[in-house]
Amino acid sequence: MFTWNSTTVDEFILVGLTGRQDMQILLFIVFLTCYLVTFIGNALIIWLSNINPRLHTPMYFFLRNLSCLDICYTSCVVPKMLINFLLVKKSISSNACFTQMSVHMSLGITDSFLLLSMAYDRYVAICSPLHYTKIMHPMLCISMAGACWVGGFIVSLINTVYTLQLPFCGPNIVNHFFCEEPTLLELACADTSLNKTLLFFSAVIVSVIPFFAICSSYVYIISSIMKIRTTGGRRKAFSTCASHILVVTLFYDTIFFMYLRPGTVHVANQDKMATLFYSVITPMLNPLIYTLRNKDVKLALRETTRKATLQN
After folding, report:
1. How far apart are CA 96 and CA 98, in angstroms?
2. Is residue 18, in this structure, part of any structural domain at all?
């Protein structure tokens, strides 16, 4: 139980993406569309990979986790943002604000760990194809996915505990469209150097280390692919990794921009755009990337559609 300072604010006011009232309805329509595309696209991948035996492999097990994570990630941010587009006073209670901050951070960290797990799966599939089914057995996949979710929760909990010990006595204007820790720290009525240091090292652990581990795995993957004698074999091997590489690039570029810069160079509008990209745009693009570039998913979709048509 934390003892809150008696001057702690009861609510925060979210500035949002823009203060222009004439833009609110347009932004509502745009982000409602993005949210629906994200939800439907990721739900479709989860459904297809569950009902189609062709997709009952470790790769699609992790993809199901990623799709579930993307739905939760955007649902943590977008619904409140949509409501605020329609309100004059864009307030959020302090409890809801810190909860949103903690859940968003936990899901973001889980995303990073999950992308690392997917890279390991591709490494084993291409570098040790004869031992793939033996190494990537179901219990290992479940354990890896579970570790990603638990790891995200633990790292987020540590940062949240330290943030909750800070007094927030005003102002309560959050120059963002949701409660994100770097922005909230600017409103604390105390020295936040420890919190910022902890946040920085957390970002290094959960993003820089996984990113370089992913890059290292792809060095071995590409080396193994180049040893394949046939052009068709090399093309097929590359195609199984291309979607993952693109998703990794989209995710980590904005994460690095947001969390691995010195505090003095943060610019509110740039931070909003970076956060918007990895919290809203990337989860929307992920199912498109995996369906448009993945023959197995497209084939499973065609088969399911054909069966549904014949039944009707």
Report:
1. 6
2. yes
The token pair that represents 128 in the structure block? 């040790």
Rounded-to-integer distance, Cα 69 and Cα 249, Å? 18
For 146-163, b where at least 16 C-beta lie within 10 A, e where not — what string?
A: eebbebbbebbeebbebb
Walking along the chain (312 residues) 10 residues at a time, the average pLDDT comes out as: 53 86 90 94 90 87 93 94 90 92 94 94 91 93 96 95 89 89 89 90 90 92 86 78 85 78 59 84 86 72 73 64
pLDDT at 251: 87
pLDDT at residue 4, as a whole number: 43
Q: Please check whether residue 3 lies inside any domain of the structure.
A: no
Number of domains comprising the chain: 1
Whole-number pLDDT of residue 36: 95
Which CATH number belongs to the domain containing residue 42 in this structure? 1.20.1070.10
Asked if the structure places residue 229 within a domain, the reply is yes
Please, are residues 91 and 13 in contact by the beta-carbon 8 Å criterion?
yes
Domain that holds residue 171: 11-311
Integer angstrom CA distances of residue 309 from 23, 45, 101, 146: 42, 19, 44, 37
* 135/120 Cα distance (integer angstroms): 11
pLDDT value of residue 262: 58
pLDDT at 266: 54
Can you name the residues that pair with 25 across neighbouring β-strands?
A: none
The answer to whether the beta carbons of residues 301 and 51 sit under 8 Å apart is no
> Is 12 buried (19+), middle (13-18) or exposed (0-12) by CB count in 10 A?
buried
What pLDDT score was predicted for residue 7? 45
Supply 43's token pair.
């739900």
Contact in structure between 279 and 74 (CB atoms under 8 Å): yes
Would residue 220 count as lying in a domain? yes
